[in-house]
Amino acid sequence: MRFFLYMMILTFLPVLLLLIAMLTGIIFQSDYITSVLVLIAILLGIPVTAMMAVLSIRRLNDFNTTGWWVLTSFLPVAGVLLALALFFIPGTPGTNRYGISPDPERNIIKLLCMLAASFLLVALLFWL
């Protein structure tokens, strides 16, 4: 659950900035402001991608597997399957070779995950 929440937050930061760039371009009719905001979103995407890779590696370690499996996310079908596994399959219980398992999820984390998933669903429905 915590992994899902962190990935949702990291995904929506650049998307939100790109949305703001589009809206400022429409409202102010300014290509300069839009270009600057798009450049900032692209530059923000680089550390966000690195943080997502680190989170994915930590989650793979919860499965007692090596972090090199994160490279499969660049393959079209395997990447989707890996993401689904990271989101929904629980890690190994107890201690594994990468350390102890994380604390059980608190109710606030579950609530935030439900809110993030609801926001994603509403955004997808609004987009269609």
Proportion of beta-strand residues: under 5%
Number of helices: 4
Q: What is the helical fraction, as a range of percent? A: over 70%
Radius of gyration over alpha carbons?
Answer: 17 Å
Morphology call = elongated
Query: Mean of residue pLDDT?
Result: 75
Low-pLDDT runs of 5+ residues are none
Question: What is the succession of H and E elements?
Answer: HHHH
- Given helix and strand content, the structural type is mainly alpha
Gap from first CA to last CA: 27 Å
Total count of strands: 0
Largest sheet: none
Number of domains: 1
Describe this structure in words.
- It is built from four helices and no strands.
- The longest helix is centred in the middle third of the chain and has 32 residues, at 31-62.
- With 128 residues, it is mainly alpha-helical.
- The protein is elongated.
- α1 (2-28) runs antiparallel to α2 and α1 runs parallel beside α4 (107-127).
- It has one domain (2-127).
- The protein has helices spanning 2-28, 31-62, 76-88, 107-127.
Topology:
Layout: H1 2-28, H2 31-62, H3 76-88, H4 107-127
Helix pairs in contact: 1-2, 1-4
Key terms for this structure?
4 helices; 128 residues
Briefly characterize the structure.
Helices cover 73% and strands 0% of the residues. It is an all-alpha fold and 128 residues long.
